[in-house]
Amino acid sequence: MGFTVPLLARQRHPVAVFAVITVFSLAEAVSGLLTNAHFLAQLIMLYNLARFAPPVHLAVAVAITVPQTIVTIMTFAQDTQMSRIDSPLAVTIDLVLCILAIAGLGLAGRVARSYIIALEDQAARLQVERDQRARLAEATERARISREMHDILGHTLAVVVGLADGAAGLAETNPKKSGETLRIIADSGRGALADLRRLLTAIREEGRHEAPFHPQPGTGDLGALLERTRAAGPDARLETAGDLTGLPAGLQLAVYRIVQEALTNTLKHAASDTAVRVAVIAEQDAVHVTVEDTGPPALERARSSEGGGQGLLGMRERAALYQGTVTAGPNSAGGWSVRAVLHSTPPVKAGLDAHQA
To answer: In angstroms, rounded to a whole number, what is the distance separating the alpha carbons of residues 24 and 205?
Structure first.
């Protein structure tokens, strides 16, 4: 009982149980008894010390158990008839080797257990990181979709409002021109709906094949963009330099959206004599975008109050994808200027590049 009952707590209290087993072993030896339970209990406790106790406790236990075993065997070999123990030296060596082997086996189990715990911790961390990346990807995708819809709807509605105002004024004086303006409004609306359908189709798995994909707008579509702006009232002209068609598709889309948003802002505040100049210059490692209009200056304060709006924020986010910057403010002509610089090779092609149709 003295050797078996304490073993029930060997994992929770290995040091205390080893001390109890050692005391019972010494008591057994003093009483003149020598049983297999004595050595078996000590071997079990050495294994558990190696598995669950600090290594220094195992070293102390081995330092106690080995001399105790040697003294016990040699004492019994001298005090009893030799027939009870055959070759006491060989038995002693075997027991010492067994003690060391058990201690080594326990250490191996300890290392394996630590490795398994480390793997479990790593798996848990990877799960958390995967969930965080998934949430981040979802937030990024939502922001991208919101930005795209803002650009599409904002510009189209600004054009439609400008054209509708013009058509209302021409309805009686020039019905033919009014009809042409209404057709431009319809074309603009259909174009916006097509853009929205393409965007929503791209993010709906169940509708992946319901509509054909078309290329996202790029620098080659700037002319058509300015045509719609001119149709809405302002005199718009485009100046380009460098190889714009050779730019990456994602960079072309960023340039297009920045110009589109700047023109949308112009249309919101345009007067009858407003003129706007768009300049896009492609250099070896950067693209410079400038959108300048002529006013009217009475709206400078109103525009300044909108400087922190979603439009400017969206332009800056697009420029940031290409290590670029966007600045906006009043110009010398009494109007508003938007200037952007985008670098040709972004550090991480994410967001827009990953969603090219």
So the answer is: 72
The token duo for 253 is 């889309």
DSSP state of 354: G
Domain that holds residue 220: 139-355
Q: Is pTM, for the whole model, over 0.85?
A: no
Which residues of the chain fall below pLDDT 70? 1-11, 29-38, 75-88, 91, 141, 150, 154-155, 162-163, 165-167, 169-172, 174, 176-178, 180-181, 198-215, 296-310, 345-357
Among residues 123, 152, 172, the one where a domain terminates is 123
Integer Cα distance of 169 and 319 in angstroms? 39
Q: Which residue has the tokens 């209990």?
A: 41
The gap from C-alpha 98 to its chain's centroid, in whole angstroms, comes to 53
Number of structural domains found in the chain: 2
Could you tell me the CA-to-CA distances from 42 to 15, 27, 67, 92, 154 in Å, in that order? 12, 14, 13, 15, 82
